UniProtKB/TrEMBL annotation:
Residue ranges that the Swiss-Prot or TrEMBL entry lists as coiled coil: none
Organism expressing this protein natively: Clostridium rhizosphaerae
InterPro entries in UniProt: Acyl_CoA_acyltransferase (IPR016181), GNAT_dom (IPR000182), MshD_Acetyltransferase (IPR050276)
Pfam families per UniProt: Acetyltransf_7
Protein name (Swiss-Prot/TrEMBL): GNAT family N-acetyltransferase
Residue ranges crossing the lipid bilayer per the database entry: none
Stretches assigned to the N-acetyltransferase domain: 6-149
SUPFAM superfamilies: Acyl-CoA N-acyltransferases (Nat)
Length: 149
């Protein structure tokens, strides 16, 4: 699991199923809740909906998808790291990619139950600007912001 073997590339649909498998496994572990959408719907969302308003990059270790990020110039929509690759700097690499392609500030939401994510974002310069639960999972959310406030 050497970091320097991991390449970050633009997402391509040939990686969709593997990306979704990694995403679902990581999310399920983070929030202790099964994904509410079918696998097929999740793949459709990645290929056809998320990709409309976001740049999507994936991290590849040899041929294995080990991370993904979806963002636009002002918001990070998704960021997931394979459970075996967390805590090794890969999330920070993907976050830096979003920061360098931003307007100088980014917002994002994370689930309140996901303490690991909160620690990660706060360690990387994000601060809490709001709370709520406008998500399909009906879990409390925390809204974070980074950059020129």
């Amino acid at each position: 699991m050497e970091q320097n073997n991991i390449k970050i590339i633009e997402f391509e649909p040939i990686y969709a199923e593997e990306t979704v498998r990694m995403w679902r496994q990581s999310k399920e572990k983070a929030i202790s809740q099964k994904e509410i959408h079918s696998f097929e719907d999740h793949v459709f969302f990645l290929n056809n909906i998320l990709s409309k308003d976001n740049k999507i990059y994936i991290a590849i270790d040899n041929t294995k998808v080990v991370g993904m990020i979806a963002f636009n110039e002002s918001e990070i929509n998704q960021l997931y790291i394979h459970i075996d690759y967390q805590g090794k700097g890969l999330g920070r690499r993907l976050l830096e990619l979003a920061k360098s392609n931003s307007i100088g500030r980014l917002t994002l939401f994370t689930f309140e139950v996901n303490r690991k994510a909160q620690h990660f974002y706060e360690k990387n310069g994000f601060r809490i600007i709001g709370r709520g639960y406008e998500n399909e999972e009906n879990l409390d959310d925390i809204k974070y912001e980074w950059g020129d406030m």
